[in-house]
Amino acid sequence: MADIEDTHFETGDSGASVTYPMQCSALRKNGFVMLKSRPCKIVEMSTSKTGKHGHAKVHLVGIDIFTSKKYEDICPSTHNMDVPFVKREDYQLTDISDDGYLCLMADNGDLREDLKIPDGELGAQLRADFEAGKELLCTVLKACGEEVVIAIKTNTALDK
């Protein structure tokens, strides 16, 4: 029999789920839902009448919160859909590295340097405001093991 020291355990997450079930009829516009295994914000919802077989169907249109890609799905209103646990956090921007990573500081003083400048207009605005010397807060959205900066705002708490 192998010694305990020889036993190798795979490390993983805590086992907590990244989603929870919610009845399709309970979902709301501007809420979150998993469509095609992607975390999406619901932008459109319509319910069809009960058909011959007794199920009203809900037509969902969602925008991926990380890629902005549009997804659609139709689900019986009585069925459960997965809803991602979505967490928003604001970080103070302290620096931008040469390779495009943001140096962000949490409220408790912890630093993180694992997020890249977002693509597109938001990234360009962030870089321009930072170079102009503005104190910025970055809103980071976290869901399903992914994180991305979704918004920036001027940090008014520092203005005295």
TrEMBL record:
SMART domains the record matches: eIF-5a (SM01376)
Single GO MF annotation: RNA binding
GO CC field: cytoplasm
Xref: InterPro entries: IF5A-like, IF5A-like_N, IF5A_C, NA-bd_OB-fold, Rib_uL2_dom2, Trans_elong_IF5A_hypusine_site, Translation_prot_SH3-like_sf
UniProt PTM comment: eIF-5A seems to be the only eukaryotic protein to have a hypusine residue which is a post-translational modification of a lysine by the addition of a butylamino group.
Keyword set includes ATP-binding: no
Keyword list, A-Z: Cytoplasm, Elongation factor, Hypusine, Initiation factor, Protein biosynthesis, RNA-binding
A GO biological-process term: positive regulation of translational elongation
Subcellular location, record wording: Cytoplasm
The keyword Transferase is annotated on this UniProt entry: no
Highest taxon above the source species: Eukaryota
Protein family per UniProt: Belongs to the eIF-5A family.
Record-given protein name: Eukaryotic translation initiation factor 5A
